[in-house]
Amino acid sequence: DAEIRKNDEYWLAGTSKLLLRCDFVYCPYGGLDCTQGMVQELKLASENGIPVYSSLSTLVNRELRKRG
């Protein structure tokens, strides 16, 4: 179990660095049925002002509007 947690922490640290470079996050689950890692990533996005979209149409409409 400790080895699995250690491995999860390694991957979460790596994906967190990538996530912080994103313009937005698309999560079709709307936060439901998320793994613990996904929950942490969504929280990290929210804490850093990265928009999280659960609807593809909302994502497209808002991002296109922002880009002119």
Descriptive overview:
The protein is mostly helical. It has helices spanning 2-19, 36-47, 56-66; strands at residues 25-26, 52-53. Strands 1-2 form a two-stranded parallel ribbon. Strand 1, helix 2 (36-47) and strand 2 (52-53) form a beta-alpha-beta unit. Helix 1 (2-19) packs parallel to helix 2 (36-47). It is elongated.
Short description:
By secondary structure, the protein is mainly alpha-helical. It contains three helices and two strands. It has helices at 2-19, 36-47, 56-66; strands spanning 25-26, 52-53.
Please describe the structure with a list of short key phrases separated by commas or semicolons.
mainly alpha, single chain, two-stranded parallel ribbon, 60% helix
Biggest β-sheet: count, sense, barrel? 2 strands, parallel
Per the principal axes of the C-alpha atoms, what is the gross shape? elongated
State the separation between the terminal residues, measured CA to CA: 49 Å
Strand % is 5-15%
Secondary structure topology:
Blueprint: H1 2-19, E1 25-26, H2 36-47, E2 52-53, H3 56-66
Parallel strand pairs: 1-2
